[in-house]
């Protein structure tokens, strides 16, 4: 595979018009549960290795290319715009760990980053010792050691993904890394000697991301998955021994739980964390005793979630900080003891949660999300008013409870603040990241002694980008039950005209994005590719619907299980609000969502097709009932806590059937907006068959639907930055066409649009 970008390669060679749209034959398979029978006409498309199925998928790709051939010039333009705004030869802000500064850098024409380091000098309390070296883009830094060049590792593969990447934190002499070259998220784990640069004989197949290496570099702990693609075992590998001698140190039999392993920032403890959608548990083991036995911190209790962070508190010594939701819906932070090792004096394992001391109490208006402990400070990640924030606690100032949390604030109405890479326990600065819809990704170091923000880097945007040319704003829609739902908007100032009251003077083309599941929040973020939409007059909006986590844990609970329909009706309410307030019009609005967000926009297409000109569904979970009824499929049992168990509960079955996009396509869908579904053949999270079946049924019902399937990728789509830009350009060109802007050329406040074609 070439490393050099080939934008929109061989477009004309692949856009021969197909004689007609693919029509998947109807071969009904009856599914009966709880006295209800559903005849599934297209379940036969699940046979991934069947030549007829593969031929049908290839025909779908050919038809999509043919129907969208007129967009090839626009795709090329958008690709070149993304490329032209990106500093292709660049590097990340170096991060200090031990005696090295670690960073990644990219090179123009190369698909993947290069992981490298340079030696560091001085390691003390002086923030000057923690000032990253000034490494200018475009040159190889003096003394650089390349740890892993992903471009080299990817040679000969159509797909490449790096999973685990862990360097021994003390001396930096070994690297444990894992790669996937098919997209199915089964990673091969290897160990590299960073003194010689050579891989050791160690090679372990079919691992899951998240391996850690012990501080002495002698052991690697890693997770593996069961047949349902659930990480359920943690193994210990001794470097230099065959994988056949690896030892299982933890196994979780409950199919609802995922298991992971990590190393505390203090390097004192190895930590196993396991969790379902509603319950979690943590086990610890001293890192200097890697062959010892892990022990639990708190006993697992259904409905209680907690995470553990090791800390050293003045006057009290080693403690554990536990962030939990036991009787605290939005979580609270407590301090507790470290359970004693087996056979030693001290508090037993597991600990009694009632004996813990509350240091950051529950707040119904603030959702605590993370805690990070350092030698002299504790950092908290939390959200309030749908804005993610960071607060600091100085341990030197702690005299009791509650702790005084000092928030690091930014002068923007909408923004995202989060911790960056901070691998060392005893450091005088804290790496912080900040961004918004108009502010490019920015890296600061916070001087913990003074609170000063030290700017380290702001994402370069070539071509004269000025954040003052763009505006971000919050709107509120009212849902069916009276709940106020936040909407975030961003637009180019001189491309969207507001009247004296601050509302739209005339409807604008608008892209409405939504997700709404797993308590995942769609926070403000900057996007270079999005500029190609904004500069053509498109307003970008995010509907922060229930099921996400933007407004706290209740917001999530009100959009899952038997309240899942709130996610869909919230999105419809947001769309209607944007129409009624003049921001847009139905013929000028496209809905966009991926994965669980694909379920969202698929359900919305059935609920309110009249509100949209187009629906873009990426790797969409549009046949949820079929998937969640089959415990043998990847992730099914894990998902029951999110969606319910339709296999055993007739009420859940009936409820899910009422909103499943695939099962609710009407016999006549000719009035539907145009629909583009994208997927990947090797996706293990949302199988390709779901959008393939959905598009087949939509087309049979007369809906203008297209399917684009990557034949060598997984859930995240194609790998490689240029390939990803091509994919984004493809989607953006389709969005612009659906909005009537395929011929748009933005120049100041003047633009000319051509009508959208009836592609689909």
What does this protein look like?
By secondary structure, this protein is of the alpha+beta class. 16% of the residues lie in helices and 31% in strands. A hairpin with a 2-residue loop joins strand 4 and strand 5. It is globular, with a radius of gyration of 26 Å.
List the helices and strands and how they pair.
Layout: E1 29-33, E2 36-40, H1 51-67, H2 72-85, E3 90-91, E4 95-97, E5 100-106, E6 114-119, E7 145-149, H3 150-153, E8 161-167, E9 174-180, E10 187-193, E11 198-207, E12 212-213, E13 219-225, E14 231-238, E15 247-251, E16 258-263, E17 269-275, E18 280-286, E19 295-296, E20 306-313, E21 317-324, E22 332-336, E23 357-360, E24 367-373, E25 377-384, E26 387-394, E27 406-408, E28 416-419, E29 429-435, E30 442-447, E31 453-458, E32 470-478, E33 484-492, E34 510-513, H4 531-534, E35 539-543, H5 553-557, H6 565-580, E36 589-594, H7 596-607, E37 614-618, H8 624-628, H9 636-643, H10 650-659, E38 674-680, H11 689-700, E39 705-710, H12 721-738
């Amino acid at each position: 595979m070439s490393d050099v970008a080939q934008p929109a390669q061989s477009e004309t060679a692949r856009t021969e018009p197909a004689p007609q749209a693919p029509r998947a034959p109807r071969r009904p398979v009856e599914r009966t549960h709880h006295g209800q029978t559903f005849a599934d006409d297209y379940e036969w498309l699940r046979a991934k290795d069947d030549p007829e199925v593969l031929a049908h998928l290839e025909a779908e790709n050919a038809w999509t290319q043919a129907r969208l051939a007129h967009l090839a010039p626009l795709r090329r333009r958008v690709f070149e715009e993304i490329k032209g705004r990106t500093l292709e030869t660049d590097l990340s802000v170096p991060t200090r760990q031990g005696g090295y500064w670690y960073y990644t850098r990219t090179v123009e024409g190369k698909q993947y980053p290069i992981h490298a380091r340079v030696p560091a000098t001085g390691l003390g309390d002086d923030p000057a010792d923690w000032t990253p070296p000034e490494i200018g883009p475009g040159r190889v830094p003096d003394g650089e050691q390349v740890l892993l060049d992903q471009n080299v590792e990817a040679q000969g593969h159509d797909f490449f993904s790096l999973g685990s990447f862990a360097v021994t934190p003390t001396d930096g002499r070994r690297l444990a890394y894992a790669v996937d070259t098919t997209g199915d998220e089964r990673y091969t784990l290897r160990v590299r000697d960073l003194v010689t640069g050579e891989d050791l004989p160690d090679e372990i197949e079919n691992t899951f991301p998240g391996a850690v290496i012990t501080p002495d570099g002698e052991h690697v702990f890693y997770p593996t998955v069961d047949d349902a693609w659930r990480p359920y075992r943690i193994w210990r590998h001794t470097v230099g021994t065959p994988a056949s001698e690896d030892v299982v140190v933890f196994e979780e039999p409950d199919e609802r739980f995922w298991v992971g392993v990590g190393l505390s920032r203090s390097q004192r403890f190895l930590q196993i964390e396991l969790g379902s959608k509603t319950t979690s548990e943590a086990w610890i083991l001293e890192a200097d005793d890697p062959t010892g036995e892990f022990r639990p911190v708190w006993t697992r209790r259904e409905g209680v979630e907690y995470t553990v962070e090791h800390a050293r508190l003045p006057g009290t010594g080693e403690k554990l900080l536990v962030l939990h939701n036991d009787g605290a819906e939005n979580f609270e932070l407590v301090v507790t003891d470290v359970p004693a090792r087996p056979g030693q004096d001290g508090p037993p394992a597991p600990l009694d949660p009632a004996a813990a001391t509350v240091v950051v109490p529950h707040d119904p208006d603030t959702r605590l999300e993370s805690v990070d402990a350092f030698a002299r400070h504790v950092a908290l990640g939390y959200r309030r008013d749908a804005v993610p924030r960071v607060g600091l606690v100085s341990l030197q100032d702690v005299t009791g409870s509650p702790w005084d949390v000092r928030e690091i604030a930014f002068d923007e109405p909408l923004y995202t603040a989060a911790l960056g890479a901070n691998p060392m326990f005893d450091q005088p600065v804290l790496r912080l990241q900040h961004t918004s819809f108009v502010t490019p990704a920015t890296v600061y170091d916070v001087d913990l002694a003074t609170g000063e923000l030290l700017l380290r880097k702001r994402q370069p945007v070539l071509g004269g980008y000025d954040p003052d040319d763009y505006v971000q704003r919050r709107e509120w829609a009212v849902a069916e039950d009276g709940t106020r739902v936040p909407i975030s908007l961003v637009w180019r100032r001189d491309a969207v005209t507001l009247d004296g009251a601050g509302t739209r003077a005339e409807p604008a083309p608008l892209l409405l994005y939504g997700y709404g599941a797993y308590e995942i929040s769609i926070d403000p973020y900057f996007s270079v590719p999005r500029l190609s939409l904004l500069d053509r007059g498109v307003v970008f909006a995010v509907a922060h619907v229930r099921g996400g986590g933007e407004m706290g844990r209740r917001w999530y609970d009100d959009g899952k299980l038997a309240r899942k329909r709130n996610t869909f009706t919230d999105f419809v309410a947001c769309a209607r609000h944007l129409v009624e307030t003049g921001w847009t019009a139905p013929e000028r609005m496209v809905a966009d969502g991926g994965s669980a967000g694909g379920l969202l926009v698929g359900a919305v297409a059935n609920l309110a097709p009249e509100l949209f000109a187009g629906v873009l569904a990426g790797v969409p979970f549009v046949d949820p009932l079929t998937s969640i009824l089959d415990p043998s499929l990847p992730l099914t049992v894990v998902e029951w806590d999110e969606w319910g168990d339709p296999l055993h509960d007739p009420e859940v079955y009936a409820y899910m059937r009422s909103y499943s996009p695939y099962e609710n396509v009407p016999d006549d869908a000719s009035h539907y907006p145009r629909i583009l579904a994208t997927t990947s053949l090797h996706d293990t999270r949302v199988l390709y068959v779901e959008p393939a079946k959905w598009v087949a049924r939509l087309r049979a019902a007369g809906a203008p639907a297209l399917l684009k399937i990557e034949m060598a990728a997984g859930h995240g789509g194609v790998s490689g930055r240029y390939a990803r830009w091509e994919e984004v350009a493809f989607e953006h060109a389709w969005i612009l066409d659906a909005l009537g802007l395929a011929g748009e050329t933005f120049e100041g406040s003047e633009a000319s649009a051509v009508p959208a074609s009836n592609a689909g």
